[in-house]
Amino acid sequence: MRYKPFPAKFFCDNRRLLSQRLDEDGLALVFSADSSIRNGDQLQPWRQDSNFFYLTGLEQPGIFLLLLPEKAGSHQEVLFLPPVNLEREKWEGKMLTPERASEISGVKKVLPADQFLAHFFRAQEQKNTLYTEVNALFPDQPLTKAHRMLEDFRVRLPGLNFKKMGPLLVPQRAKKQTVEIDRIRASLGIIEKGLRSVAKKLKPGMMEYQVEAELAFHYLNAGCSRVGFETIVAGGKNACTLHYVENSDPLAAKELVLIDTGGEYGMYSGDITRVLPISGKFTERQAHCYQAVLEVNKTFIRKLRAGLSWKELAEQAGMIQGEIYKKAGFITEAKDYLKVGYHRIGHSLGLDVHDLQIADWPLKAGAVITVEPGLYLPEEGIGIRIEDNVVLTEGGFEVLSANIPKEIADLEALMA
Protein backbone atom coordinates (compact mmCIF):
# COMPACT_ATOMS: atom_id res chain seq x y z
CA MET A 1 0.00 0.00 0.00
CA ARG A 2 1.34 3.45 -0.96
CA TYR A 3 0.06 5.21 2.17
CA LYS A 4 -1.84 4.56 5.37
CA PRO A 5 -5.60 4.98 4.74
CA PHE A 6 -7.71 7.42 6.69
CA PRO A 7 -9.77 5.90 9.53
CA ALA A 8 -13.45 5.34 8.75
CA LYS A 9 -14.29 7.90 11.45
CA PHE A 10 -12.95 10.66 9.19
CA PHE A 11 -15.54 9.88 6.54
CA CYS A 12 -18.34 9.24 9.08
CA ASP A 13 -17.75 12.66 10.66
CA ASN A 14 -17.70 14.34 7.26
CA ARG A 15 -21.06 12.82 6.32
CA ARG A 16 -22.56 13.73 9.68
CA LEU A 17 -21.50 17.37 9.38
CA LEU A 18 -22.84 17.61 5.83
CA SER A 19 -26.15 16.03 6.84
CA GLN A 20 -26.53 18.60 9.61
CA ARG A 21 -26.30 21.35 6.98
CA LEU A 22 -29.04 19.84 4.83
CA ASP A 23 -32.69 20.79 5.21
CA GLU A 24 -34.79 18.14 6.93
CA ASP A 25 -36.99 17.98 3.85
CA GLY A 26 -34.00 17.33 1.61
CA LEU A 27 -31.76 14.46 0.61
CA ALA A 28 -28.26 14.39 -0.85
CA LEU A 29 -26.97 12.30 -3.72
CA VAL A 30 -23.23 12.01 -4.38
CA PHE A 31 -21.76 10.26 -7.44
CA SER A 32 -18.42 8.58 -7.78
CA ALA A 33 -16.35 9.67 -10.77
CA ASP A 34 -17.09 8.13 -14.16
CA SER A 35 -14.57 6.46 -16.40
CA SER A 36 -14.03 8.28 -19.70
CA ILE A 37 -12.55 7.35 -23.07
CA ARG A 38 -9.18 8.81 -24.04
CA ASN A 39 -9.01 7.35 -27.55
CA GLY A 40 -9.84 4.04 -29.20
CA ASP A 41 -10.32 1.52 -26.41
CA GLN A 42 -8.08 3.41 -23.97
CA LEU A 43 -9.49 5.14 -20.91
CA GLN A 44 -8.35 8.37 -19.34
CA PRO A 45 -6.42 7.83 -16.09
CA TRP A 46 -9.15 7.55 -13.48
CA ARG A 47 -9.30 9.51 -10.23
CA GLN A 48 -12.12 9.57 -7.71
CA ASP A 49 -14.37 12.62 -7.42
CA SER A 50 -13.03 14.72 -4.54
CA ASN A 51 -16.39 15.16 -2.79
CA PHE A 52 -17.13 11.45 -3.05
CA PHE A 53 -13.74 10.54 -1.58
CA TYR A 54 -14.16 13.12 1.20
CA LEU A 55 -17.45 11.50 2.22
CA THR A 56 -16.63 7.80 1.68
CA GLY A 57 -12.91 7.12 1.09
CA LEU A 58 -13.88 4.71 -1.71
CA GLU A 59 -11.86 4.64 -4.91
CA GLN A 60 -13.98 2.87 -7.52
CA PRO A 61 -16.39 4.14 -10.19
CA GLY A 62 -20.09 3.31 -10.38
CA ILE A 63 -21.00 3.97 -6.72
CA PHE A 64 -23.80 6.17 -5.31
CA LEU A 65 -24.05 7.67 -1.82
CA LEU A 66 -27.48 8.71 -0.54
CA LEU A 67 -27.86 10.83 2.62
CA LEU A 68 -31.28 11.31 4.24
CA PRO A 69 -31.42 13.85 7.09
CA GLU A 70 -33.83 13.20 9.95
CA LYS A 71 -34.99 15.15 12.97
CA ALA A 72 -32.65 15.88 15.88
CA GLY A 73 -29.61 16.01 13.59
CA SER A 74 -29.50 12.30 12.74
CA HIS A 75 -29.49 10.88 9.23
CA GLN A 76 -29.73 7.72 7.20
CA GLU A 77 -26.97 6.81 4.76
CA VAL A 78 -26.83 4.19 2.04
CA LEU A 79 -24.12 3.14 -0.42
CA PHE A 80 -25.06 1.52 -3.73
CA LEU A 81 -22.21 -0.62 -5.03
CA PRO A 82 -21.71 -2.40 -8.37
CA PRO A 83 -21.67 -6.19 -7.92
CA VAL A 84 -18.34 -7.97 -8.00
CA ASN A 85 -17.67 -9.13 -11.57
CA LEU A 86 -15.21 -12.02 -11.65
CA GLU A 87 -14.50 -11.64 -15.37
CA ARG A 88 -13.78 -7.93 -14.96
CA GLU A 89 -11.51 -8.67 -12.01
CA LYS A 90 -9.30 -10.78 -14.30
CA TRP A 91 -8.49 -7.62 -16.26
CA GLU A 92 -8.76 -4.78 -13.75
CA GLY A 93 -8.13 -6.26 -10.31
CA LYS A 94 -10.23 -6.72 -7.21
CA MET A 95 -13.51 -4.83 -6.92
CA LEU A 96 -14.96 -3.58 -3.66
CA THR A 97 -17.17 -6.01 -1.79
CA PRO A 98 -20.01 -4.64 0.38
CA GLU A 99 -18.03 -5.65 3.47
CA ARG A 100 -14.87 -3.85 2.35
CA ALA A 101 -16.80 -0.75 1.25
CA SER A 102 -18.47 -0.60 4.66
CA GLU A 103 -15.16 -1.08 6.46
CA ILE A 104 -13.48 1.79 4.58
CA SER A 105 -16.37 4.26 4.59
CA GLY A 106 -18.14 3.44 7.85
CA VAL A 107 -21.48 3.24 5.99
CA LYS A 108 -23.30 0.26 7.44
CA LYS A 109 -26.00 -0.12 4.77
CA VAL A 110 -24.55 -1.17 1.41
CA LEU A 111 -26.94 -2.27 -1.35
CA PRO A 112 -26.42 -3.39 -4.96
CA ALA A 113 -26.24 -0.54 -7.46
CA ASP A 114 -29.17 -1.94 -9.45
CA GLN A 115 -31.42 -1.19 -6.45
CA PHE A 116 -30.53 2.50 -6.42
CA LEU A 117 -33.36 3.90 -8.57
CA ALA A 118 -36.12 2.08 -6.71
CA HIS A 119 -34.65 3.13 -3.36
CA PHE A 120 -34.16 6.75 -4.47
CA PHE A 121 -37.69 7.17 -5.78
CA ARG A 122 -39.14 5.84 -2.53
CA ALA A 123 -36.86 8.08 -0.45
CA GLN A 124 -37.67 11.29 -2.32
CA GLU A 125 -41.43 10.89 -1.75
CA GLN A 126 -41.03 12.45 1.70
CA LYS A 127 -38.53 15.09 0.57
CA ASN A 128 -38.78 18.33 -1.39
CA THR A 129 -35.16 19.10 -2.21
CA LEU A 130 -32.35 17.14 -3.81
CA TYR A 131 -28.83 18.33 -2.98
CA THR A 132 -26.32 17.11 -5.53
CA GLU A 133 -23.33 18.29 -7.55
CA VAL A 134 -21.67 17.48 -10.84
CA ASN A 135 -18.48 19.38 -11.73
CA ALA A 136 -19.81 22.72 -12.95
CA LEU A 137 -16.55 24.48 -13.81
CA PHE A 138 -16.60 23.87 -17.56
CA PRO A 139 -19.74 24.29 -19.70
CA ASP A 140 -18.37 22.09 -22.49
CA GLN A 141 -17.32 19.09 -20.40
CA PRO A 142 -18.53 15.70 -21.71
CA LEU A 143 -21.86 14.61 -20.27
CA THR A 144 -21.55 11.76 -17.80
CA LYS A 145 -23.96 9.16 -16.46
CA ALA A 146 -24.61 11.53 -13.56
CA HIS A 147 -25.65 14.35 -15.91
CA ARG A 148 -28.05 12.08 -17.76
CA MET A 149 -29.51 10.64 -14.57
CA LEU A 150 -30.19 14.10 -13.10
CA GLU A 151 -31.77 15.22 -16.37
CA ASP A 152 -34.09 12.21 -16.17
CA PHE A 153 -34.96 13.03 -12.55
CA ARG A 154 -35.98 16.58 -13.54
CA VAL A 155 -38.41 15.16 -16.11
CA ARG A 156 -39.85 12.41 -13.93
CA LEU A 157 -39.94 14.44 -10.69
CA PRO A 158 -40.94 18.00 -11.69
CA GLY A 159 -41.90 18.91 -8.12
CA LEU A 160 -38.45 18.09 -6.72
CA ASN A 161 -36.20 21.13 -6.15
CA PHE A 162 -32.55 20.79 -7.12
CA LYS A 163 -29.87 22.57 -5.08
CA LYS A 164 -26.11 22.60 -5.34
CA MET A 165 -24.33 20.67 -2.61
CA GLY A 166 -21.00 22.41 -3.23
CA PRO A 167 -21.69 25.58 -1.21
CA LEU A 168 -22.48 23.42 1.83
CA LEU A 169 -19.17 21.61 1.50
CA VAL A 170 -16.99 24.71 1.00
CA PRO A 171 -16.66 25.66 4.69
CA GLN A 172 -16.40 22.01 5.66
CA ARG A 173 -13.66 21.03 3.21
CA ALA A 174 -11.84 24.35 3.65
CA LYS A 175 -11.09 23.61 7.31
CA LYS A 176 -8.53 20.82 6.98
CA GLN A 177 -8.28 18.15 9.63
CA THR A 178 -4.95 16.95 11.00
CA VAL A 179 -4.88 13.83 8.84
CA GLU A 180 -5.42 15.97 5.73
CA ILE A 181 -2.64 18.40 6.64
CA ASP A 182 -0.36 15.42 7.26
CA ARG A 183 -1.06 14.18 3.72
CA ILE A 184 -0.16 17.61 2.30
CA ARG A 185 3.02 17.64 4.41
CA ALA A 186 3.94 14.24 3.00
CA SER A 187 3.37 15.46 -0.55
CA LEU A 188 5.52 18.54 0.10
CA GLY A 189 8.33 16.39 1.48
CA ILE A 190 8.34 14.40 -1.75
CA ILE A 191 8.19 17.58 -3.86
CA GLU A 192 11.13 19.01 -1.91
CA LYS A 193 13.31 15.99 -2.69
CA GLY A 194 12.32 16.14 -6.35
CA LEU A 195 13.16 19.83 -6.67
CA ARG A 196 16.49 19.41 -4.87
CA SER A 197 17.39 16.62 -7.29
CA VAL A 198 16.42 18.78 -10.28
CA ALA A 199 18.49 21.69 -8.98
CA LYS A 200 21.57 19.45 -8.75
CA LYS A 201 21.15 18.14 -12.29
CA LEU A 202 20.02 21.34 -14.03
CA LYS A 203 22.31 22.62 -16.78
CA PRO A 204 22.12 24.53 -20.07
CA GLY A 205 20.93 22.36 -22.97
CA MET A 206 18.75 20.17 -20.77
CA MET A 207 15.21 19.83 -22.16
CA GLU A 208 12.21 21.09 -20.22
CA TYR A 209 10.62 17.65 -20.48
CA GLN A 210 13.68 16.08 -18.86
CA VAL A 211 13.05 18.19 -15.77
CA GLU A 212 9.41 17.07 -15.86
CA ALA A 213 10.52 13.44 -16.12
CA GLU A 214 12.89 13.78 -13.15
CA LEU A 215 10.07 15.12 -10.99
CA ALA A 216 7.60 12.45 -12.11
CA PHE A 217 10.14 9.75 -11.27
CA HIS A 218 10.59 11.10 -7.75
CA TYR A 219 6.86 11.38 -7.15
CA LEU A 220 5.95 7.89 -8.31
CA ASN A 221 9.03 6.33 -6.72
CA ALA A 222 8.12 7.89 -3.36
CA GLY A 223 4.54 6.57 -3.36
CA CYS A 224 2.52 9.28 -5.10
CA SER A 225 -0.36 7.92 -7.16
CA ARG A 226 0.10 10.57 -9.86
CA VAL A 227 1.28 14.11 -10.41
CA GLY A 228 -1.04 16.62 -8.77
CA PHE A 229 -1.50 18.55 -12.03
CA GLU A 230 0.29 18.98 -15.33
CA THR A 231 3.85 19.99 -14.51
CA ILE A 232 5.00 23.38 -15.76
CA VAL A 233 8.68 23.58 -16.72
CA ALA A 234 9.09 26.93 -18.44
CA GLY A 235 12.46 28.26 -19.48
CA GLY A 236 13.03 31.93 -20.34
CA LYS A 237 10.07 33.65 -21.99
CA ASN A 238 7.95 30.46 -21.73
CA ALA A 239 7.47 31.34 -18.06
CA CYS A 240 5.35 34.33 -19.12
CA THR A 241 2.66 31.88 -20.27
CA LEU A 242 1.01 31.02 -16.98
CA HIS A 243 -0.13 27.49 -17.83
CA TYR A 244 2.68 26.53 -20.18
CA VAL A 245 2.75 22.72 -20.20
CA GLU A 246 4.36 21.84 -23.53
CA ASN A 247 7.73 21.48 -21.81
CA SER A 248 9.37 20.93 -25.18
CA ASP A 249 12.17 23.54 -25.40
CA PRO A 250 15.85 23.38 -24.45
CA LEU A 251 16.95 25.34 -21.39
CA ALA A 252 19.31 28.15 -22.37
CA ALA A 253 22.32 29.42 -20.46
CA LYS A 254 21.83 32.61 -18.44
CA GLU A 255 18.05 32.23 -18.45
CA LEU A 256 15.69 31.25 -15.64
CA VAL A 257 13.44 28.22 -15.49
CA LEU A 258 10.11 28.31 -13.65
CA ILE A 259 8.92 24.97 -12.24
CA ASP A 260 5.32 24.71 -10.98
CA THR A 261 4.76 21.19 -9.68
CA GLY A 262 2.97 18.84 -7.32
CA GLY A 263 2.80 15.15 -6.51
CA GLU A 264 -0.51 13.68 -5.33
CA TYR A 265 -0.02 11.57 -2.23
CA GLY A 266 -3.15 9.86 -0.96
CA MET A 267 -5.47 12.20 -2.93
CA TYR A 268 -3.73 15.38 -1.63
CA SER A 269 -1.07 17.33 -3.50
CA GLY A 270 1.18 20.19 -2.57
CA ASP A 271 1.47 22.97 -5.14
CA ILE A 272 4.91 24.55 -5.32
CA THR A 273 6.61 26.93 -7.73
CA ARG A 274 10.32 27.66 -7.68
CA VAL A 275 12.53 29.53 -10.13
CA LEU A 276 16.13 28.49 -10.78
CA PRO A 277 18.96 30.07 -12.78
CA ILE A 278 19.82 27.53 -15.46
CA SER A 279 23.56 28.32 -15.29
CA GLY A 280 23.57 28.19 -11.48
CA LYS A 281 23.82 31.94 -10.79
CA PHE A 282 21.27 34.75 -11.05
CA THR A 283 22.33 37.72 -13.14
CA GLU A 284 22.06 41.12 -11.48
CA ARG A 285 18.80 41.88 -13.29
CA GLN A 286 17.33 38.46 -12.56
CA ALA A 287 18.23 38.79 -8.88
CA HIS A 288 16.58 42.23 -8.74
CA CYS A 289 13.37 40.85 -10.21
CA TYR A 290 13.45 37.69 -8.10
CA GLN A 291 14.05 39.56 -4.87
CA ALA A 292 11.02 41.79 -5.48
CA VAL A 293 8.74 38.76 -5.92
CA LEU A 294 10.26 37.11 -2.86
CA GLU A 295 9.60 40.26 -0.84
CA VAL A 296 5.93 40.15 -1.88
CA ASN A 297 5.75 36.46 -0.97
CA LYS A 298 7.26 36.92 2.50
CA THR A 299 5.45 40.18 3.30
CA PHE A 300 2.06 38.71 2.41
CA ILE A 301 2.67 35.53 4.43
CA ARG A 302 3.55 37.59 7.52
CA LYS A 303 0.13 39.27 7.34
CA LEU A 304 -1.87 36.04 7.13
CA ARG A 305 -4.37 35.21 9.87
CA ALA A 306 -7.63 33.34 10.24
CA GLY A 307 -10.82 35.37 9.80
CA LEU A 308 -9.89 37.09 6.55
CA SER A 309 -11.82 36.31 3.38
CA TRP A 310 -10.31 35.69 -0.04
CA LYS A 311 -11.64 39.07 -1.09
CA GLU A 312 -9.79 40.76 1.79
CA LEU A 313 -6.64 38.77 1.09
CA ALA A 314 -6.72 39.80 -2.56
CA GLU A 315 -6.99 43.45 -1.56
CA GLN A 316 -4.05 43.15 0.83
CA ALA A 317 -1.99 41.34 -1.78
CA GLY A 318 -2.73 43.99 -4.38
CA MET A 319 -1.50 46.75 -2.09
CA ILE A 320 1.67 44.80 -1.24
CA GLN A 321 2.44 44.00 -4.88
CA GLY A 322 1.70 47.55 -6.02
CA GLU A 323 3.99 49.09 -3.43
CA ILE A 324 6.89 46.68 -3.96
CA TYR A 325 6.70 46.55 -7.75
CA LYS A 326 6.50 50.33 -7.98
CA LYS A 327 9.50 50.71 -5.69
CA ALA A 328 11.43 48.18 -7.80
CA GLY A 329 10.66 50.13 -10.98
CA PHE A 330 8.40 47.62 -12.75
CA ILE A 331 5.36 49.93 -12.74
CA THR A 332 4.86 53.66 -12.25
CA GLU A 333 1.45 53.41 -10.54
CA ALA A 334 0.83 50.94 -7.72
CA LYS A 335 -2.68 50.21 -9.01
CA ASP A 336 -1.17 48.72 -12.17
CA TYR A 337 0.42 45.74 -10.42
CA LEU A 338 -1.57 43.21 -12.49
CA LYS A 339 0.08 44.51 -15.66
CA VAL A 340 3.25 42.73 -14.55
CA GLY A 341 1.82 40.42 -11.86
CA TYR A 342 -0.87 38.90 -14.13
CA HIS A 343 -2.75 36.92 -11.46
CA ARG A 344 -4.07 36.96 -7.91
CA ILE A 345 -2.03 35.93 -4.91
CA GLY A 346 -3.17 32.32 -4.43
CA HIS A 347 -5.93 29.78 -3.92
CA SER A 348 -7.23 27.17 -1.50
CA LEU A 349 -5.48 23.80 -1.50
CA GLY A 350 -6.76 20.37 -0.56
CA LEU A 351 -8.35 17.41 -2.34
CA ASP A 352 -8.43 19.67 -5.38
CA VAL A 353 -5.32 21.67 -6.22
CA HIS A 354 -7.65 24.64 -6.73
CA ASP A 355 -9.84 23.71 -3.80
CA LEU A 356 -13.34 24.98 -3.12
CA GLN A 357 -13.49 28.62 -2.04
CA ILE A 358 -16.02 31.46 -1.73
CA ALA A 359 -14.74 35.04 -2.07
CA ASP A 360 -16.60 36.48 0.95
CA TRP A 361 -16.31 33.51 3.30
CA PRO A 362 -13.79 34.07 6.14
CA LEU A 363 -11.01 31.50 6.19
CA LYS A 364 -10.75 29.66 9.48
CA ALA A 365 -7.87 27.99 11.28
CA GLY A 366 -7.13 24.81 9.36
CA ALA A 367 -7.48 26.39 5.93
CA VAL A 368 -4.56 25.57 3.62
CA ILE A 369 -3.76 28.13 0.93
CA THR A 370 -1.08 28.89 -1.63
CA VAL A 371 0.83 32.16 -1.71
CA GLU A 372 2.19 32.67 -5.22
CA PRO A 373 2.98 36.20 -6.37
CA GLY A 374 4.37 36.53 -9.88
CA LEU A 375 6.28 38.96 -12.05
CA TYR A 376 6.24 38.60 -15.82
CA LEU A 377 8.41 40.65 -18.19
CA PRO A 378 8.08 38.92 -21.58
CA GLU A 379 10.16 41.55 -23.38
CA GLU A 380 13.08 40.52 -21.14
CA GLY A 381 12.31 36.79 -21.20
CA ILE A 382 11.78 36.82 -17.43
CA GLY A 383 8.91 35.06 -15.68
CA ILE A 384 9.05 34.56 -11.91
CA ARG A 385 6.55 32.97 -9.52
CA ILE A 386 7.36 31.89 -5.98
CA GLU A 387 4.69 29.66 -4.48
CA ASP A 388 4.44 28.35 -0.93
CA ASN A 389 1.74 26.36 0.88
CA VAL A 390 0.53 27.78 4.19
CA VAL A 391 -1.92 26.52 6.82
CA LEU A 392 -3.75 29.08 8.95
CA THR A 393 -3.63 28.39 12.69
CA GLU A 394 -5.36 29.82 15.76
CA GLY A 395 -2.27 31.91 16.45
CA GLY A 396 -1.32 32.85 12.90
CA PHE A 397 0.09 30.53 10.25
CA GLU A 398 2.60 27.79 9.44
CA VAL A 399 4.48 27.63 6.15
CA LEU A 400 4.21 23.94 5.27
CA SER A 401 6.74 24.33 2.45
CA ALA A 402 9.36 26.11 4.58
CA ASN A 403 11.99 23.43 3.87
CA ILE A 404 11.92 24.03 0.11
CA PRO A 405 14.65 26.64 -0.57
CA LYS A 406 13.63 29.99 -2.05
CA GLU A 407 16.32 32.48 -0.98
CA ILE A 408 18.75 33.38 -3.77
CA ALA A 409 21.83 32.33 -1.78
CA ASP A 410 20.22 28.98 -0.87
CA LEU A 411 19.21 28.24 -4.46
CA GLU A 412 22.66 29.05 -5.81
CA ALA A 413 24.30 26.97 -3.09
CA LEU A 414 22.01 24.06 -3.92
CA MET A 415 23.09 24.23 -7.58
CA ALA A 416 26.80 24.60 -6.89
Describe the 3D structure.
- The protein is α+β, with helices and mostly antiparallel strands and 416 residues long.
- It has 2 domains: 8-172, Creatinase/prolidase N-terminal domain (Creatine Amidinohydrolase, Chain A, domain 1), CATH 3.40.350; 175-415, Creatine Amidinohydrolase (Alpha-Beta Complex).
- It has 13 helices and 19 strands.
- It has helices at 8-21, 50-56, 86-92, 98-105, 116-123, 145-156, 166-174, 178-201, 208-221, 284-302, 310-327, 338-341, 408-415; strands at 26-31, 37-39, 42-43, 64-69, 75-81, 109-112, 129-132, 161-164, 226-227, 232-235, 256-261, 263-265, 268-269, 272-277, 368-371, 374-377, 382-385, 388-393, 396-399.
- The strands form 6 sheets. Strands 6-5-4-1-7-8 form a 6-stranded mixed beta sheet, with helices on both faces.
- A hairpin with a 2-residue loop joins strand 2 and strand 3 (42-43).
- Helix 10 (284-302) packs antiparallel against helix 11.
- The longest helix is centred in the middle third of the chain and has 24 residues, at 178-201.
- The two termini are 37 Å apart.
Strand order of the largest sheet: 6-5-4-1-7-8
| Gyration radius, in Å | 24 Å
Query: Which CATH class of the largest domain applies here?
Result: Alpha Beta
Quickly count the domains. 2
Strands, count: 19
**Which architecture name of the largest domain does CATH use?**
Alpha-Beta Complex
GO biological process, one term: proteolysis
Organism: Candidatus Lambdaproteobacteria bacterium RIFOXYD2_FULL_56_26
GO molecular function, one term: metalloaminopeptidase activity
Protein name: Xaa-Pro aminopeptidase
